[in-house]
Amino acid sequence: MMSWRQLELHPRIISALHKAGVRSVRDALCMSGPDLQRLTSLSASDARRLLTAAALLCRPRRPLPVLVADESGRRLSLGCPVLDGLLRGGLPVGAITELSGQSGVGKTQLALQLCLSVQYPVCHGGLDSGAVFVCTEDVFPSRRLQQLIREQPRLRTDVPPDVTSSLRFGDGVYIEHAADLASLQSCLKRRVRLLLARRLVRFVAVDSVASLFRSEFGLADWPERNKQLLMLSSMLRHFCHQFDCAVLCINQVTDIFNNSEEFMGPSSSSVCPALGLAWANQVTVRLMMRRLQGTVTKGEQGSALRRLDVVFAPHLARTGQDAAVWREGVRGLEAAAETPG
């Protein structure tokens, strides 16, 4: 167990850690900067300095990015050429992608869209398989899914109509509910694994990964929370590698304290993804969806303006794309196609 004696930190910081019961370096890395500030009453700069020093101790050599999804790698299309352009084709197959954002921004809708996209043939950006959607917060939005199914011909104009009409989308989406962490682990180990092993699905969505950890663990329970987070991420990575599938984990967000820069989110955002560095180190791609000021219109439809940002990925630039939510789904905005409201 690495101790604070191995770091050159101000005695004030070490004293605050001891008073808060943070006994080791790894314990601190299980928490985000805001969580550390709440627990220890440290300033934003002290928390940032602490986490930076702890991370350098655990990984003394600068990591080199590995392109797990290179230019020839497979992708799962988002069903929108503009958003696929942002992600160089879509979500990488064989990796965990995280999508974070505030409530109501469109995260679940994008996950539903991917549940339909995966069912298309490979030549049209799919994986010719089904999807499993694991709900941990709300009831599965079946009405919205049925609407997206009806609107597929309008969304996927790049696909021949006979291909779209031949797919039985509703039969290819498997729905699971998990009310607590034990139920989630059981669901993944048994039912989801079985669906993957039988090649019935090649896309797994968990909505959301943060809700159960936030409800079951307090700030003082970070060692056990970290252990459970690592077990969950290990299982999901195993699914990716063994069954050659894509995994999407939806995450919640937390407020940033005192304009702290240590939050691994878009620089212009006032929130950061939940679960801290311990979870951030387990995902390959981190995306963040947020609302912008203004609205856009298309015909008689209107939508609040959104933006999908790439926070980090080994094969992508840190950039973003404006988007909107229409009846047919989430689409990236092309300036000539939509008019700001």
Textual characterization of the structure:
With 341 residues, the chain is α/β, with parallel strands linked by helices. The chain has 13 helices and 14 strands. The protein has helices spanning 11-20, 25-29, 33-40, 44-58, 81-86, 107-117, 142-150, 152-155, 161-166, 181-197, 209-216, 222-243, 276-280; strands at 75-76, 91-92, 96-101, 130-135, 173-177, 201-207, 246-251, 253-255, 271-273, 285-298, 301-312, 320-326, 329-332, 339-340. Strands 3, 4, 5, 6, 7, 10, 11, 12, 13 and 14 form a ten-stranded mixed sheet that branches. A hairpin with a 7-residue loop joins strand 11 and strand 12 (320-326). The model is unreliable at 63-72, 258-263 and 336-341 (pLDDT under 50).
Features:
two-stranded antiparallel sheet; 13 helices; single chain; alpha/beta; disordered C terminus; 14 strands
